[in-house]
Amino acid sequence: MAISSAERKQIENEMIFRRLNEKLGSDLDALDVMHKEDGNLDLLHDDLLLIEFKCECSDEKCAVRISLRLSKYRELHLSRNDFIVKVDHQIDAIEKVISREDGYNVVKKIHSIPEPGDRLNITTLDNANK
Question: 116 exposed, middle or buried (CB, 10 Å; 0-12, 13-18, 19+)?
């Protein structure tokens, strides 16, 4: 089943937001490596630390943050087709809710596409009031 250009743009935006969130986790890991090398063990990040991850919805203007522990974020993304979005930020045409959590949903993409470039797509979506 072919997907429309608009749906492809929406999926690509979500993948870019996920990539940004994953970079945050990688950066924390890199900092921990440096702290260990420098003997600054008191500066290691705590596994209980809540991180404000970006909502991975399709709206390029969405500024919602979702508080999660890094380990929980990584657990939720074991599948490359899964994304975290604020409640009601999912788009039924491209994804289905697979888990409802406190303050966010985990959605699974219906269609799989190759990883996009680094630029967000302008969409007609507006999650500002959701």
Answer: middle
Both tokens of residue 5?
A: 């250009």
The size of the chain, in residues, is: 130
Q: Enumerate the β-bridge partners of residue 52.
A: 67
Which amino acid, 59?
D
Q: Could you give the 3-state DSSP secondary structure of residue 65?
A: strand
pLDDT tens per residue, range 32-91: 788 788 888 887 777 777 889 999 999 999 999 999 998 899 899 898 899 999 999 999
Nearest CA among 20, 4, 2 for reference residue 118 = 20
- What tokens appear for 93 in the block? 């045409």
DSSP 8-state class, residue 114: -
Give the model's pLDDT for residue 114: 66
Is 16:120 a contact under the CB 8 Å cutoff? yes
Q: Domain extents for the chain?
A: 5-109
* DSSP-derived secondary structure letter, 123: -
